[in-house]
């Protein structure tokens, strides 16, 4: 089945550095990718929507300059957390909309990235 | 996106028991999805519902799309220890995916 491969699965970085998270769609093209953030024991919060070849759309309250999104190809979207601080520590997950042969559709998720900023 | 009302927040049951959880919304959705998330992993789709009144099964799981299109429930029959995890409902309206707050399920042998 269609899979979104997310990498890395976990990363520890120093405060002030930048971290890049990649999501690749395997065996399907993702013109749109959604980026979520999840705090412990909470639901997923949509951060932004990336569209291949155009600028990302950010949800209210999400800093564009802090969370840089690039969707340069139909199979790759990246989220870069710039100048990371401890409060950016969280679980980040990407998701792509998908249609399957029976006429149904839904969203498939990456396996998530645990970011810890020290 | 808007938050769905998902209940219960957590459940602690014995192996073999049946489980039921539900989601409600003040808005109409075109599609309801149910996901399971294991610790440190992304959500995995369990069941997708596309029509009001639709009842769909996936093994021991059964889910229904409410007639009003504002609610959905998920039942798990004869629970087993590997059912442990967090279950999320999600409603699609247009292109946006709206999540419930999740139901944490614990199953004791």
Question: Could you please describe the fold and organization of this structure?
Answer:
The complex is a heterodimer of chains A (118) and B (109). Chain A has strands at 3-7, 10-13, 19-26, 32-38, 44-51, 57-58, 67-73, 76-81, 90-99, 105-109, 113-117. Chain A is built from no helices and 11 strands. In chain A, the strands form 2 sheets. In chain A, strands 2, 4, 5, 6, 9, 10 and 11 form a 7-stranded mixed sheet that branches. In chain A, strands 1-3-8-7 form a 4-stranded antiparallel sheet, with no helix packed on it. Chain B is mostly beta strands and 109 residues long. Helices cover 0% and strands 56% of the residues of chain B. Chain B contains no helices and 11 strands. The mean pLDDT of chain B is 93. The A-B interface holds A 4, 6, 9, 32, 34, 41-44, 46, 91, 93, 95, 97, 104-112, 114 and B 1, 3, 31, 33, 35, 40-45, 48, 50, 88, 90, 92, 95-97, 99-102, 104.
Give the helices and strands, then pairings.
The complex is a heterodimer of chains A (118) and B (109).
Chain A: E1 3-7, E2 10-13, E3 19-26, E4 32-38, E5 44-51, E6 57-58, E7 67-73, E8 76-81, E9 90-99, E10 105-109, E11 113-117
Parallel strand pairs in A: 2-11
Antiparallel strand pairs in A: 1-3, 3-8, 4-5, 4-9, 5-6, 7-8, 9-10, 9-11
Chain B: E1 5-7, E2 10-14, E3 19-24, E4 31-37, E5 44-49, E6 55-58, E7 61-65, E8 71-76, E9 85-93, E10 96-99, E11 103-108
Parallel strand pairs in B: 2-11
Antiparallel strand pairs in B: 1-3, 3-8, 4-5, 4-9, 6-7, 7-8, 9-10, 9-11
């Amino acid at each position: 089945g269609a899979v979104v491969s997310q990498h890395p699965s976990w990363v520890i970085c120093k405060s002030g550095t930048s971290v890049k998270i990649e999501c690749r769609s395997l065996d399907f093209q993702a013109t749109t990718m959604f980026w979520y953030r999840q705090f412990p024991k909470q639901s997923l919060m949509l951060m932004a929507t990336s569209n291949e070849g155009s600028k990302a759309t950010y949800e209210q309250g999400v800093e564009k300059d802090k969370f840089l999104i690039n969707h340069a190809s139909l199979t790759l979207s990246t989220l870069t957390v710039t100048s990371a601080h401890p409060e950016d520590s969280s679980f980040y997950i990407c998701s792509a909309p998908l249609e399957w042969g029976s006429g149904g559709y839904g969203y498939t998720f990456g396996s998530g990235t645990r970011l810890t900023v020290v | 996106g808007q938050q769905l009302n998902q209940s219960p927040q957590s459940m602690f049951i014995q192996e073999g028991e049946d489980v039921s959880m539900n989601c409600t919304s003040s808005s109409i959705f075109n599609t309801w999805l149910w996901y399971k998330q294991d610790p440190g992993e992304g959500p995995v789709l369990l069941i997708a519902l596309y029509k009001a009144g639709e009842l769909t099964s996936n093994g021991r799981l059964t889910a229904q799309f409410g007639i009003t299109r504002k609610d959905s429930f998920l039942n798990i029959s004869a629970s087993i220890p590997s059912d442990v995890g967090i279950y999320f409902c999600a409603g699609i309206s247009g292109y946006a995916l709206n999540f419930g707050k999740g139901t944490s399920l614990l199953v004791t042998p």
